[in-house]
Amino acid sequence: MTLRTGPLKVRAQIFAGDEIAMGPGKADLLEAIEREGSISAAGRSLGMSYRRSWELVDTMNRCWAERLVETVPGGGRDRGAHVSEMGREVLALYRELERQLLGSAAGQDFTRLKGLLRDPPAPRNY
Amino acid sequence: MTLRTGPLKVRAQIFAGDEIAMGPGKADLLEAIEREGSISAAGRSLGMSYRRSWELVDTMNRCWAERLVETVPGGGRDRGAHVSEMGREVLALYRELERQLLGSAAGQDFTRLKGLLRDPPAPRNY
After folding, report:
1. Which among A94, A5, A82 is positioned nearest to B10, based on CA atoms?
2. I need a labelling partner for B23 at 20 to 30 A (CA). Which of A2, A45, A73, B60 fits?
3. Which whole number is the average pLDDT over B11-32?
């Protein structure tokens, strides 16, 4: 999901220590896991490598009070996975936080910024 | 500048078409140019290559109604540069937008999210 309101894009990241516990990519992956029923299929649907999607899941599972993604043992790469109850709660809270952030951007300063934009940009000279 | 309130980090990007007209890296670069007086010195102070800092300046200069960075002709890589009047205005508006976004994050949902975080994260098992 891309959070854009006109020319403004907002990204929110939640840190646990130095690790990103939740962000746009991880939230998208959670939604894809819920939809696809496996980590590898979810990653594929987002154009993400198996290794990358597995790393994101591992990070999420270590950064919250409980695991956000549960896997079904056995079955190799395509074994099933689903988003836990806490995973659904964290995802919903994160999406709500994103919506709040974007809603707060409808202020005066942004209007002025938009007025200064050149859209489309001038072409490159090289 | 890193916009963090506790575990939350917010990034705002302003798009002109498909190009990022302003974002955290470009705003930091503008501030560094104002401080250092040249694009190359500004890039160095941020650990950014000359090529990268020049590309960011070129993008900014094409994405707004007027150039945000003016360079003094001649003198090679270390020729002088300064932030234009419009550059200072865009920078100030962008920083204010960032502050507004971060301020809006002090809501209830974020409090609940924080309560679910495991900080520090559990160690990796591999």
Report:
1. A94
2. A45
3. 95
Residue A125 predicted with pLDDT over 90: no
Which positions in chain B touch A113 (Cβ < 8 Å)? 14, 22, 90, 93-94, 97
Give the confidence band of A107 by pLDDT, cuts at 50, 70, 90. low
B96 closest CB neighbour out of A17, A59, A109: A109
Regarding pTM above 0.80, the answer is no
d(CA A86, nearest CA chain B) in Å: 9
Residue range B30-53: mean pLDDT, rounded: 95
Give contacts of B 30-49 with A, CB under 8 A: none
* Pairing state between β B4-5 and A4-5: unpaired
- pLDDT at residue A1 greater than cutoff 60: no
A10-70: CATH number: 1.10.10.10
Residue type, position B85, single letter: E
Task: State how far residue A32 is from chain B, nearest Cα, in angstroms.
Answer: 21
Contact B124/A at CB under 8 A: yes
Cβ of B97 and A107 within 8 Å? Answer: yes
Mean pLDDT of A34-38: 95
CATH code that applies to domain B13-116: 1.10.10.10
A7's CB contacts (< 8 A; 6+ apart) are A114, A117, A119, B14, B15, B16, B21
